[in-house]
Amino acid sequence: NELNLDSAGAYYSIDQSTHYLVYKMRIFWRDHQSVEIVGLGNSRMQAGFYASKLEHALNMATVPCDIFMSHYIFKNYLLTQAPNLKYLLVSLDFDLWDQKEGNSFKDNFGSAPGFAYDANHDFWQKGLYDGFYEAVQNSIVDVDANMELTEQLNGFGFISVENASGWGKPEVLNGMWELESDMPQKNYERFLDILKMAKEHNIYVIGVIFPMNPRYASTKYYGRHGMNRYSAENFIERIKKLDNDEKYFVLMDENKMGKHDYDDSMASDSDHLNEKGAEQLINRIKAVLEKISK
Has this prediction a pTM greater than 0.85? Predict the structure, then answer.
């Protein structure tokens, strides 16, 4: 079978809104046979999951990323091409559960032919064509020192303490959009489908609620992208119940509606950790993984 070198591994296009996924696909194909732990989510996961501190772990977060995008990567790439996957970290960002399916695909895929090429070949379930790995590594990327560091750190988007500005003021970009919308429920249902697929493959899902500015507690809003605090609490209660009922699911609520122990020195801004915050979180993730693996 002949590899189309114009399409194979060609994950970059100029019309993508960011190029995170281009780099993540490179490290994915580099490590897909051996990877055991993968983090999926948006910039909170990107800056918060210090994958290189674990063995066989990748931070596959991309920006923007919603639950539909995480579902797509899990179903089509991880379940088909990561035979040793044991643990999946999924970022739970309730204030971003206004997204409709497809928004994030367009931003991440752009017109890059590589994603369509994978889909047209059924995500290589019958095996990769000769020369595929070389094509991925040789394909065009935006040469970017930050992303090269990210690649070395297995996908972790390192934000140094020097470049961080603490929690600051609790910035709110959107209002209580969810009161008029059925999208949060649809996002939740897509998350449940991730759990179902993971369970069928004996993969543990760790749902991570990343810490945000504790000062959101003195507003009506859950986080940077709005949502009424009651609406978010309602979802957290449902997800806590899943944690009790499902063997293959663990909730890590590191935000605790603002009552967390990530201080100003650990924050990059209102809803992202810096390297110090990510170090605290990775130690807790290690403890959860140890507990599960017993």
Answer: yes
